[in-house]
Amino acid sequence: MLPTPTHMPQLDELSAIIAQNTSDDGVFETSIPRLSLIRFSRQTEPCQTLQHPALCIVVQGSKQVMLADEIYVYGPAKHLVVSVDLPVTGQIIEATPEKPYLCMRLDLDLPALGEMFMEITPATGEPAGGCSKGVCLADTSPQFLDSALRLLRLLASPEDIAYLAPLAERELMYRLLRGPQAHKVRRMLMPDSRLQQVTRAITWIRQNYAAPFSIEQVAAEARMSPSSLHQHFRDVTAMSPLQYQKQLRLQEARRLILTSAVDAATAAQRVGYDSPSQFSREYRRLFGAPPIQDVARLRQEPERFAET
Fold first, then answer.
1. CA angle 262, 266, 267 (to 5 degrees)
2. How far apart are the first and last CA of the chain?
3. 125 burial level (CB within 10 Å; 0-12, 13-18, 19+)
4. What is the mean pLDDT of residues 89-118?
5. Alpha-carbon torsion 15, 9, 176, 136, what sign?
6. Residue (of 245, 248, 196, 241) closest to 222 by Cα position
7. Which pLDDT belongs to residue 131?
8. 38 forms bridges with which residues in the sheet?
């Protein structure tokens, strides 16, 4: 779906607000809780990150997000919803100094969204059953953009944020729960859904990623059989539990080397690797360069690898 004349006034105003509140390339937190604004004036290198549950609305330029071997490309007529913690690779693929990539990201308040889910009657004709992916891509309607605008306009009146931002955010979440991907968003909120069981497994792995574990152990934590865990974990994350653990280990090792001034061998040991050669091999496969070269590149051009 491409932007239509109906979308353009909202997109133009959203672009202006984001441009006014971002001084340079990068990711900027705002005075509105959980809301960040993102601006980049050129394409970026692929950036591996752990993406937490969030709503991302691009208003100018475009981006692709890779989850394992699956690629999601979105621009001003689409928005992305991430429902669980996922190791993803993001890359801005359309941006220039004259027309930078501009995006708003709202980290999801899942308890508040869950309360709304219990209050709202599902729309007729919603698909039923099944476990959805942890990433959803949907068309952005003019009504959805109107709700986003009401939230961002509050940046110009800080005195109103404490009272009005929760109302504007609630309206945006209502649109999410009534939009074309509502059935997928609802699945992530249902207490006994497969997605919630996978979320329990993800939470446990994140807390214990540096230690060896058995699939049976994770399945017990998720209250699933091992075979069911394998199937539905891959459905949601596009990877197995062990592949998920590996990505967490490597991303944490990269963070340690970059921010804690530890060497690669020490970082590898801290995240659970017994073999430095295996660590170096898997690090290079994920990040495209050995640890020393990769971190040197990050330090030289940090803005090109920023979380986007």
1. 75
2. 22
3. exposed
4. 91
5. negative
6. 196
7. 42
8. 27, 103
User: Rounded to an integer, what distance in angstroms lies between the CA atom of residue 151 and that of residue 133?
Assistant: 27
Q: What's the rounded mean pLDDT across residues 207-234?
A: 93
* Same-domain check for residues 162 and 47: yes
- Per-residue confidence (pLDDT) for residue 120, from 0 to 100: 79
Q: Which residue do the tokens 């995240």 mark?
A: 271
Instruction: Give the domain CATH number at 225.
Output: 1.10.10.60
**3-32 per-position pLDDT tens digit:** 665 678 899 999 999 999 998 999 999 999
Average pLDDT over residues 232-239: 91
Residue 4, token pair as written in the block: 């239509």
- Kindly report the pTM of this predicted structure: 0.85
Out of 123, 153, 187, pick the residue that ends a domain: 187
What's the 3-state SS for 251-301?
A: HHHHHHHHHCCCCHHHHHHHCCCCCHHHHHHHHHHHHCCCHHHHHHHHHHC
Q: Any alpha helices (H) in the chain, and if so which ranges? A: 8-20, 110-119, 142-152, 158-178, 182-187, 194-208, 215-222, 226-237, 241-259, 264-270, 276-287, 291-300
